Amino acid sequence: MRPRVTGFERPPSAGAAGKLTDPANLQQLLANTQQVLNTIHQMGPFIEQYGPLIKNLPSMWKLYRELKSLPDEKDKKTDESKTEDPKKEAKEKPDTAHEKKKPASSRPKLYI
Question: Which of 25, 71, 84, 94 could be joined to 75 by an S-S link, Cβ 3.0–4.6 Å?
Fold first, then answer.
């Protein structure tokens, strides 16, 4: 008489070591490893070409944000049309800018 099989029994195996020593499994493992290495080898030029771009992305993003925050040409034209005499304002600006400057701090003199 045969023992009852419930479906939860596993066939006897040698475990992980048995799977690695099986020639079919070993050949499949080596083929997959070789495929991964070939893919990495093909990605080398791509990484060399686009690596510097990726490294510079943060600084390019900052530059983009700064350029985006600058006023547009249309805004400049409307601002110029609103001012009555731009030459007068240009002359007044240096005077007011000069008044706002902080006095230069004293520096020690170097005697040689």
Answer: 71
DSSP letters of 42-58? Answer: HHHHHHHHHHHHHHTHH
The whole-angstrom separation of Cα 32 and Cα 23 is: 14
SS3 content of the chain, % helix, strand, coil (to 5): 70, 0, 30
Interval 71-103: pLDDT, tens: 877 766 666 666 555 555 555 555 554 555 566
Residue 13 has φ and ψ, to the nearest 5°, of -140, 170
The answer to whether the beta carbons of residues 86 and 80 sit under 8 Å apart is yes
Contact 13/7 with Cβ under 8 angstroms? no
Please, what is the Cα angle at 19 between 17 and 20, to 5 degrees? 65
DSSP letter (8 states) at residue 84: S
Instruction: Kindly report whether the global pTM for this prediction surpasses the value 0.85.
Output: no
Rounded (10°) CA dihedral 66, 69, 74, 78: -120
- As a whole number of angstroms, the distance between CA 87 and CA 27 comes to 84
